[in-house]
Amino acid sequence: MIWMAAVAVAVVSGLFSLIVSILLIANYVQVQAITPLDNPELLKLRQQLAATPDADANLVTQIRAMDLLTRKAFFTSQAHLKMGGYLLLGGVAALLAAWRTAARCKTRLPQPDVAPPRGSYWMSRARAGELVGFAGALWVVTALVAAFFTRLDFPGTGVSAPADSTQVAQAESAAAYPSWEVMQQNWPSFRGPGGYGVAHYTTAPMKWDAGTGKNIKWKTEAPLPGANSPVVWDNRLFLSGATESAREVFCFDTESGQLLWRRALDKLPGTPDKPPKVGDETGYAAPSMIAHGDCVCAIFANGDLVSYDFEGNLRWAKNLGVPDNHYGHSSSLLAYQNLLFVQYDQNKNGKLLALDLADGHEVWAINRQKISWASPICVNTSFGLELVVNSEKNVDAYDPLTGQPVWQLACLDGEVAPSPAFGGGMFFVANDNAIATAIRFGANEQTPKPEIAWQWDEALPDVSSPLGTGQHFYVATSRGQIVCLDSITGKVAWGQDYDNGFYASPVLVGDRIYAVDRRGTTYVFKTGPVYELIATSRLAEDVFATPAFMDGRIYVRTEKHLFCIANSNEP
Question: CA 490, 495, 497, 502 torsion: positive or negative?
């Protein structure tokens, strides 16, 4: 009988919809009460890492694996939640269809004549039906909102993640990219892994001479001009170069210095016919490239961004728009997991971008209010990994995976080119004609609220980025000064004057600091509260780019050449 079948379907679909709606609403209440990604074990491991910066790779690997599993579990649950919403819609649709069918097919028997009900009876009955219908509709809508619009904040960031199964795929694909530990063993970006000037290897040569050839393993020509630094991954070294009419990427063999391939970048959709105006010291290829696993990326002054594999095959290319930048674009590239970070600051409409390394599509973008010529850094803090950038006014920290702002501090001024430094759990920023600021986190363990630890306003850099070693911060200026500041008190430990200024940023290698001046002289000195010069070496060529440091080797880009410096006893 159709009526009985329809009633049965209505009862089953009604119970099904009721159960699904209860589960969806209960899940919403639970999510609002707790943060599923605040895994106590993960937070405990992060605190352990923050307390022991020199922890072994196993701890870092464990943190990364647990973080990835937690995120994958979250995105999977969000996908299931979304499916629950679709099931609820289907259940409600089946209930309404069955109810309507049953109403039409029910047989009505003749009724005997009885006294008519009171006039208010039908009105009360109609109102009761309306109330039941409204309550049911409200319950269903509430459950659907819980299914499709539940938002979840990542720990310490306040960013909401979309409940989409594609996020699961992104988390899984990120695992295929180089781990933080593998990045540390290479020199993938400007100022090395993470971009803050600390070398993984401690075996760099301390003395060489270009005139006699002492400890010069090889020397080769840099085909086109560029102020960018060399980046190294395994046995490949990459540079970019450009003029008004040419933009190229170069790959060298690290053993011999042989040019393995060079690729000229063709005109892309959006590439301007006329190059933008740039400063003489900036040029058309100031930003350093990024090497990441099996791909390299380069960006040029006209907004062209390109990615190749290690054999020189084009992966993708795009134009980001000609930057409104009165000196020319100079911010270097950075990468983590499957994301390429581009600090695309401009006079107006600047952005911080995260692009997928696989195909260059935009993953997230943050509008920037102020311009700078600095580069981003990515560091492990007690609150997890943070992407930190400078501007003419603020220091901004973001969650690198989502782009959600984590903290902001207004402490800069002027045309900022130096990038942030990090050491001993503190950030340090400085710029000429402004003020230097040491930044520590507040006492609140749950929120990384920044605080100014101390400030200093004497010898300050306008190009070279400062360096943090834990106990001290070091500043190298274009006027030929290097100053060592105590990281806790901000007091000057020592200061030293040199013959020439510094554009290249100082780099920490073990317990030594390498600082290269504009005339190609490298000063190697001990870290610590007392100035102790270890060695002085010269290349007799101008140097504006920060060297790359690998195991037993230093790669230096001069104005016209590329040098590999290695101890003579290296095989």
Answer: negative
Q: Do the domain assignments include residue 154?
A: yes
Domain span at residue 48 reads 2-105+117-172
pLDDT in tens, 174-205: 557 899 899 999 999 999 999 999 999 999 99
Rounded Cα distance, 352 and 360, in Å: 14
Highest mean pLDDT pick, 29-38, 59-68, 234-243: 234-243
Tokens of 376: 């981003």
Distance from chain centroid for Cα 391 = 16
Residue that is written with structure tokens 């492990």 in the block:
380
Please tell me the total count of domains within the chain: 1
Q: Does the residue 136 lie in any domain?
A: yes
C-alpha separations of 379 from 194, 370, 399, 425, 466 in Å? 6, 22, 11, 10, 15
Domain contains 155: yes
**One-letter identity of residue 527:** T
Secondary structure of 118-158 in HEC code, one letter for each residue? CHHHHHHHHHHHHHHHHHHHHHHHHHHHHHHCCCCECCCCC
pTM summary value: 0.73
Residue 492, in any domain of the structure: no
**Beta sheet of 533-538, edge-to-edge order:** 507-509, 512-516, 521-526, 533-538
